[in-house]
Design brief:
Helix content is 40%, strand content 16%. With 261 residues, it is of the alpha/beta class.
Length: 261
């Protein structure tokens, strides 16, 4: 795998870690995959604080998908940059049409742990070149998840991807997270993705900028809700709240929701 592909191991470790501790989400698949092929992580990449953040972030995305599924019962779900994530198992109990999309190397590795079904497919494609959309026959409403993806796409690449989605589907509901300019700048010093070789990341400086693609900015969500933080106890809760949910953290990460007009 290349450097960007290898970043999937950081959230995979986080989800496996919190699942083993019974926090935020239950993800036996992450536990099993990490046990089978987890790579060596060190320092911040393997800290429990980052694992908590990854677990909470995943839980926030899960709840959003469940809410949009209720709102749009006929919509197809796309998880872009899926890595090894098992969201399709965690929240797709109704068995609706679902596509997990990632680079060919990632999908090849993913297929050793997941099986396609009539309503579930794994698509190999480069998000920077959205010709993979041609493999999706559905053109109605799409619920689109981009977790930990936008920071690896240049503004032009991200705009091209969103334009492709808006051109293919009659309606789009999108949730994505992104770096602030400060986070992008600091990533050159302390970001754990440097352990797997990533040196260039991009920020989402203005949520309204993405409206040029045809989407409308709907709202910004809290990245670490208090209801999730309360699952921690004692000093862990206090320290996490200040390290990852305090004012400094809010200056680093954004969680943005978009929809078509």
């Amino acid at each position: 795998m290349n450097e960007v592909n290898k970043t999937l191991y950081i959230p995979l470790y986080g989800k496996a870690y919190v699942s083993r501790r019974g926090l935020f989400l239950r993800d036996k698949k992450a536990e099993a995959i990490w046990a089978a092929e987890g790579i060596k992580l060190r320092g911040k990449a393997k800290s429990k604080w980052l694992a908590y953040y990854m677990g909470i972030r995943a839980a926030v995305f899960d709840r959003w998908v469940l809410a949009r599924q209720k709102e749009y019962p006929d919509a197809v779900v796309l998880h872009l940059g899926c890595g090894m994530d098992s969201r399709v198992l965690r929240v797709n109990g109704e068995g609706r049409r679902w596509y997990d999309v990632d680079f060919p190397q990632v999908i090849a590795a993913r297929k050793t742990h997941y099986r396609e079904r009539d309503n579930y497919r794994m698509l190999a494609g480069d998000l920077r070149q959205p010709d993979w959309l041609e493999q999706i026959p559905e053109t109605g409403r799409a619920i689109v998840v981009m977790e930990g993806v936008s920071m690896y796409l240049s503004p032009g690449e991200l705009d091209g991807l969103l334009r492709g989605l808006c051109g293919h589907f009659a309606g789009v509901s999108l949730l994505l997270d992104g770096y602030t300019p400060l986070a992008a700048k600091l990533s050159g010093y302390r970001n754990p993705i440097r352990q797997v070789g990533v040196r260039t990341v991009y920020d989402l400086d203005d949520p309204l900028r993405l409206q040029e693609s045809g989407l409308s900015f709907l709202r910004e969500h809290p990245m670490t809700p208090e209801s999730d933080i309360c699952q921690l106890h004692g000093m862990e809760r206090i320290m996490f709240k200040h390290l990852y949910a305090g004012r400094f953290s809010q200056k680093l990460y954004r969680l943005l929701e978009y929809t078509t007009p």
